[in-house]
Predict the structure.
Amino acid sequence: MSVRFAFELLHADPSGARRGRVTTPRGLIETPAFMPVGTAATVKAMDPEDVRATGAAILLANTYHLFLRPGHETVARLGGLHAFMRWDGPILTDSGGYQVFSLSSLRKITEEGVAFRSHLDGSARFLSPEIAIRVQERLDADILMQLDECPPYPAERDYLARSMELSLRWGARCKSARFADGEDGRALFGIMQGGMDPDLRRVSAAGLIDIGFDGYALGGLSVGEPKPLMAEVLSYAPALLPRDKPRYLMGVGKPEDLVMAVGHGVDMFDCVLPTRNARNGQLFTRRGAINVKTARFREDPLPPDPQCGCATCRRFSLAYLHHLFRSREILGYRLMTIHNLHYYQDLMADMRQAIAQDRFAAFRQEFHAARDGEPM
Amino acid sequence: MSVRFAFELLHADPSGARRGRVTTPRGLIETPAFMPVGTAATVKAMDPEDVRATGAAILLANTYHLFLRPGHETVARLGGLHAFMRWDGPILTDSGGYQVFSLSSLRKITEEGVAFRSHLDGSARFLSPEIAIRVQERLDADILMQLDECPPYPAERDYLARSMELSLRWGARCKSARFADGEDGRALFGIMQGGMDPDLRRVSAAGLIDIGFDGYALGGLSVGEPKPLMAEVLSYAPALLPRDKPRYLMGVGKPEDLVMAVGHGVDMFDCVLPTRNARNGQLFTRRGAINVKTARFREDPLPPDPQCGCATCRRFSLAYLHHLFRSREILGYRLMTIHNLHYYQDLMADMRQAIAQDRFAAFRQEFHAARDGEPM
């Protein structure tokens, strides 16, 4: 691979929102960008062609899940994640740390790494910074994430400080474990921690910059804290990170969260919300969220969002989706996921255009005004 | 609609296999034809575009399911089944009788019709020949089936005889209930009953021909009888039906059953096997059936059937399907259903070609020879 990972900041809107472009050997990513989550080497209910058709340029896969099943060596023998799941665009893999803390049992964290038991079969497993890098390389990811510890909310300041320092040391080890510093075309992102504490966030950012990464993630948000607290952290934390590198807010969020965070200079997002909520019948629309299972859609001949051009809205009525959902038909999960991911990609595209035209503040007002009549 | 339903017998192979063409206002059906089952206004796990891409020209929908949910009046208000589910080709609906006998509870059959309770909510429902026709017309079906009683196997001859006579009387009432004898472009098929008894089958066929239908179905097979018994009935029953009308074997079957029945002059089939078995991990291939969940496919880089041109075999490995199935990923059900329906359509196309070339007997030999090494 001769193309190396790069980020170009194309434009900064007066509001602070950024329009950028990430270059990877597997294609460009226009930012701000939303990455659909392909947990177990599939964006749930979606064909890779469906994902591409929503406008997604990159997707995220979960190292924890693939480490356990089918295993990174199996994926490597089958040609890597892109060949395995037939997604030829870039893939970002998380480090596995977050799921170790949220899904596994009998966790034991040491300086060396984290021992845990698989949530699938109870088998004893171990993840260290070096193993996390090795696994992500074997998966053939284009953007790798450092192993970190993601503290819950609330957490004691002492614990938050020790945990953040550990994550920094793990970040440095991840960088050392990387192959020839990115000559294989892959990027490595560091993850800022520090909870809701501005001082710890500052120390974390400075430490990460010292190590030097291809991009920087904001971790430890959307972990149960009140929404105003997340907004507060986002009001200062992105600016602590280098202006010339992509900033990635992990695991966030609702459409209004993305609009807020983009206004604070965030470039990349991932979240299970559009896919998971689709499978629960919730659809995101320009007028707000609706749920197809409500009785008022029983005979509604309109599509979920008449302004939407997705493969679902172009063809099917709310009445049909209501019927599929009530009948627990598999097609319903796919059609609703197609719509939600399309909505998210349209939202990102609209934000990119607004930033390029220096009218992000106006876009934000219009976005909220359209949702004033939000039906639920 | 100016096009009326018609059947043209294009060619009869020396073996007895028939090559024909059904004309409907919504398109042509080359026979022998296999109709995928779209139970609740969706072929399970499939997009209507997926179904079309497998080569299917017509699909079957279940009157019983749609009568209960969302209701035929709801479907009618939404523009009929084709608009509702976005399938613009012809649709055959069964009469609802079979599911009343297999799914509902507290059934009570009288001359007038059958009272039962919904398997969904226990509500009291009633189906008569006139109601079955009305429901199918409101669903906007292209081929309607008469209401009949489908006796189980084994059954007493007296019961079989009485039941067959009742089905004949119901068939006559269905014909009387039809709109202007097909001027709306729809066809009505009668259903031959009589169990495994040649005399009753003869009486049933003669009675149906007296009434006069646009096509004739062989009912009461694949209801639990030993396979040689089904083969025996098929060796004489199709020939009891008019040569110039389509013959439809209901609810059958495995690939080898289709090959056998085509050899006896059957023109149309429907069965849940390719779709249901796909969701259980069973794939039909030219070498026989395989199950993706078996461990030997864990790292198999080959597609399910290297000779298959379906959207699954063109893109995905057995290893990936194995992984999706073991992870219970929704995408797996769709990919496996795509393959199985494609296999069935390829099989029908191969049979149509063999019949046209007077080499159906040779085809049948090759079909069985290829499966000698059947792995399960």
About this structure: Residues 330-356 of chain A form the longest helix (27 residues). Chain A has a mean pLDDT of 95. Chain A has two domains: 6-270, 278-370.
